[in-house]
Amino acid sequence: MSVVAFLGLGSMGRPMASRLLEAGHELRVWNRTAGRDEELVASGATRSTTPADAVRGAEVAITMLTDPQALEDVVFGPGGVASAIAATATLIDMSTVGPGPVRSAAERLSPTAVLDAPVLGSVPSAEAGRLTVLVGGGPEVYERHADLLAVFGTPVHVGPTGVGAMLKLISNAATISTLVAVGELLALTDRAGLQQDVVLDGLGLGPLASFVERWRERLEDRYERPDFPLALARKDLDLVLGEAGRAGVSLTMTETAAARADEALDAGLGERDFGAVAGFLRR
Predict the structure, then answer these.
(1) What is the dotted CATH code of the domain comprising 166-282?
(2) Is 13 exposed, middle or buried, given 0-12, 13-18 or 19+ CB atoms closer than 10 A?
(3) Measured distance CA(267)–CA(258) in Å, rounded
(4) Interatomic CA distance for residues 79 and 94, integer angstroms
(5) pLDDT at 266
């Protein structure tokens, strides 16, 4: 069992940290918003006052943060991870921040090892330990921590540092873009008088079968739990569009998805689950 510092106790971070406790790891927790650690502390975790306090003496530090600036602040800001993490420890960033910030952190933290390990799945998968963990970094570092990452679900080593972060961005962009596309088409079939079940069952007979099966409640605008708020999904689209700009690639479908998501945000749906964009477009 390891001494693990977990930094970032949002909707995903809390159930993930809880799984570490259940697996028997010694857990230290920190979150910039007070109060989110109470259940974890009651279950045996140690509350830390700063990121540095959390990682001092820890074998592994895990960050699960909102965006690149949060990662920068928590790792390199005053009282941050960089000021106290051991050279022999490993930082595992499980946030969705893109490859650039992760590679920068790895360079600046050396010789401390860094893995980028963003996850596919939302809160129910985090609670059940059924996330897919996309891990970028050195193979030997991955092998050293594969068992720990398996606490969260299924870890997959996808390549060097930054590859996991890039795959997470394109996965989110593909999902959101497809939700927007299907939402627009459902608006058409609604107005043409077709029954919702007939349309979705029909789509489920073709190449979108798995998509319709997985996201049907969201396409029907019946999913009320805000597992992945639309505002965060829109942030991820900005990140992937930034990567595209640096690579000189035009992502017109993603740009359209971002524009339609902005309309939903303007309508006050930012705290709703990202699937609400489909229902918004239908209305």
Answers:
(1) 1.10.1040.10
(2) buried
(3) 14
(4) 20
(5) 98
CB 70 within 8 A of CB 96: no
Instruction: State in words which class domain 3-159 has.
Output: alpha beta
Is 168 an annotated catalytic residue? yes
What one-letter code names the amino acid at 28? R
Largest CA-CA distance found in the chain, in angstroms, rounded: 64
Q: pLDDT confidence of 35, banded at 50, 70, 90?
A: confident
Alpha carbon of 16 to those of 9, 196, 250: distances in Å? Answer: 9, 36, 35
Please tell me which residue in 28, 168, 218, 282 is annotated as part of the active site. Answer: 168
Q: What is the rounded distance in angstroms from the CA atom of residue 160 to the CA atom of residue 162?
A: 6
- pTM for the predicted model, two decimal places: 0.93
Q: What is the CA radius of gyration of the chain?
A: 20
Sketch the domain layout of the chain as residue ranges.
3-159, 166-282
